[in-house]
Amino acid sequence: MSGRHSKHDLERTPDDDILRDLEKRWDDAPSRVLRWRKDQDVHDLDCDGTPGWDGDRDDGERLVAARAAELSELQERLFADGRTGGNRSVLLVLQGLDTSGKGGIVRHVVGLVDPQGVAHRAFGVPTPEEAAHGYLWRIRNALPQPGYLGVFDRSHYEQVLVVRVDGLEPEETWRAHYDEINAFEAEIAAAGTAIVKVALMVSRDEQKARLRERLERPDKYWKYNPGDLKTRARFGDYLDAYQEAFERTSTDVAPWHVVPADKKWFARLAVTELVLDALRSFDLGWPPAGFDVEEQLRLLDETG
Ligand code: ATP
């Protein structure tokens, strides 16, 4: 695996040997294996697969844990960069059908870094105020400021997913969104945001098992929404909508990553690696002092 820091090497930790051993379980970089390919058909995806990874669940969970130090330090460097005039940020866009595990990604992956530097936003049915504006209005308002790791739980893509499947706009209207979204993402990428788009793909059978669990466990009732069954009934239509979204909006500046999500541990591992790649791509050091260090040390000593 590539991506260690040449210019600003991170401190070695005791976990490093374990980490080097575990990362060999990837037979190719996750950003390559999981990236949407033009010839891919999402209807044929093995949602229970672990493409590129030949370790087991225990290895996967240990690698996520071992990545925490680097993830957290790079996020802190990003935050420091933003505080000192840098323009960079990361935007993790999470899409997926009900029960695909978006919330788990936020808890288990995004939760590895300092919450101070995270800007999380979940997008539900537009409020009357949001609906009074164009669909990108609420998205623009929620974009991460420089220095932040932004996380979108659902996103502007709902405008070509639920809006298409439920017929909430005429076809010519939602079809125009693909180009609009590409232009929008190119604009924010050019302004310094690394966009990591992840679609968590759960199979129909696994979705049923997860919905059943929500109905069988009182501690999960709160996650169950009777409306999820209506969405489930359109499972195939959603796959069609995802397929076309990938075909039309996977671009060089903002490619889609299609992540099999029946194994929650694999999805979490994959997203950890993708976010880490985005942070590494900035190759950030620590910002230099904006003051005279020697002078400040002298003044500090004088304070007694
Ligand atoms: P989740 O299933 O993501 O955990 P939830 O079930 O708690 O969320 P909410 O967060 O209230 O529900 O809203 C999610 C719902 O909002 C989804 O059904 C989604 O399709 C819908 N939604 C999101 N964006 C739009 C949009 N632009 N137009 C219509 N519906 C939308």
TrEMBL record:
Residues 56-280 form the Polyphosphate kinase-2-related domain. Pfam families: PPK2. InterPro entries: P-loop_NTPase, PPK2-rel_1, PPK2-related. One of its GO terms (biological process) is polyphosphate metabolic process. The keyword Transferase applies. Keywords: Kinase, Transferase. GO terms for molecular function: kinase activity; phosphotransferase activity, phosphate group as acceptor. PANTHER family: POLYPHOSPHATE:AMP PHOSPHOTRANSFERASE, POLYPHOSPHATE:AMP PHOSPHOTRANSFERASE-RELATED. This is Polyphosphate kinase 2 family protein. It comes from Xylanimonas allomyrinae.
